[in-house]
Amino acid sequence: MSAAIRFDDVSKIFATRDNAVVAIEQLSFDVAPGEFVSILGRSGCGKSTAVSLILGLIAPTTGRVEVLGVDPRAPGDGLRNRLACVFQTDRLLPWRSALANVTLPLEIAGVAAAERTERAQLWLDQFGLGDFAAALPHELSGGMRQRVAIARALVGEPEVVLADEAFASLDAITGRELRADFHRTAKAGGRTVLAITHSIDEALDLSDRIIVLGKPGRVLLELDDISSANPTRRGDFRRAITDALEQSPHLAVAAE
Amino acid sequence: MSFFTLRRPGPALSPNGAAEPVSGGRISWEGIVAILAILALWQFGSRVLPPFLFPPLQVIAATLARNLSDPATLGSIALTYGRIVLWLTVTFVLASALGIGAARSNALDRALLPLIQLKQGVPGVCWAIFAIIWFEDIELRIAFVVVISTLPSFFFQARDGVRAISAELWDMVRALRPSRWQTLEKLVLPALTPAFLTAWRINLGNGARITITAELLAGISGIGHQLRTAQEQFRMDEVMAWTVIIAAFVLLTDFGMSRLEKRLLGWRRQGEDAR
Lengths: 256, 275
Description:
The structure holds two protein chains of two kinds.
Chain A: E1 5-15, E2 20-31, E3 36-41, H1 47-55, E4 62-67, E5 83-86, H2 98-108, H3 113-126, H4 142-154, E6 160-164, H5 172-187, E7 192-197, H6 200-206, E8 209-214, E9 218-223, H7 231-246, E10 253-254
Parallel strand pairs in A: 3-7, 3-8, 5-6, 6-7
Antiparallel strand pairs in A: 1-2, 1-4, 2-10, 8-9
Chain B: H1 29-48, H2 57-67, H3 71-104, H4 106-121, H5 124-134, H6 138-163, H7 167-175, H8 180-218, H9 222-232, H10 236-264
Helix pairs in contact in B: 2-10, 3-4, 3-6, 3-8, 3-9, 4-6, 5-6, 5-8, 6-8, 8-9, 8-10, 9-10
């Protein structure tokens, strides 16, 4: 079975005025269909760069990224509505109501108006926001806005969902609630989920597998069978992750 | 309900330095007193000075009423207002396309910016003279002057408006893999609505002034032409009546824009930027 997400010896170097910053260096990993994988790492280790590469927003300097067997930078709509992302901030369009924000991916995919409204309303209902369909983003709390953002990511029934520190901007209790909602809804239907986080707890709570990245983005550690681990083994995982992160070197700067 | 909007202490400046029309609130009692004082002063002047300099208010009102009921003068009003709206719309479409293009393409921006800045350095009356020399057709002369004069503010509002769209929103929309047209429709144009409305409010006033000037200097029809005829005949009552008609257009359109702004920009929180 081919991977849902594949990084094959990927490097990404950002040129600055005086030098070049290596964000990701020779990174290789696969995420299998239906798997929930968390990428964990300290700030600046290239986690968000990895998300941008998967979304096709930037091109790798070397190596190859594939999502569902497709190069995300390739022209065409091969990944439209098959790949979605929940970002750290809600990124709702402020002039659109909650419902209209959720329908956005369906509008772009050309779904008929009646169907997209019905589907968006269903997703808002799932997240307890059915009565707030007409509310504008500034009328909603941070947690509600992030729920709308998750509904927007899932409304197109994508095969692959990215979560880029999706709960980091919320308070602890809201974040925990939302994490549970996200896990329940995103995993439904066997979706592949790649969650980017710097929270060890979040990674241990949600994932089947954890990839720990060091600086610059290189795999330091991979841990499997997280979801079936007993508390003792989870404690071992936590120590292993902490040790790996503490040994992570500082941001690399390439030769000028 | 009032068309007068004098709540703000002075005209604000748009990003390109043009004065914004005052609007959005009700007239203050101080404003009403000031207007009444001017009218009283005028009426007093009409009693002590020759009437061809200061015609009484009732004479001006009668001339105004005649101009608003005579089909020939109504035709002049319709022609001038039609020109303002038509040529502003043409400029809006052209300048917005150039502004959006310049915001997304550094090469286009580098090519256009010196031209626009050069244009800004040339007095408006020079463009009217160029138009008289270059074009025989009256409509072409007026169109040229209006388009050239109002293009920069539409251009800058569109260009800066696109640049102000956050990278986060761009990435969110791009991640959904829209076509270019969908990006324009779903993200760029809605985000530009506040900038467009500001540009229209600035340019409706500017466009009216420029169109009248172009008609005055280079036209044989419209309100500008009527003003020139009144000046040649020393008919101050006519000049004042036409001035009131022009001012009414600017105030009415500004009021309409203010209502439109409230309707279209209800999504903005008080004091929050559009983007």
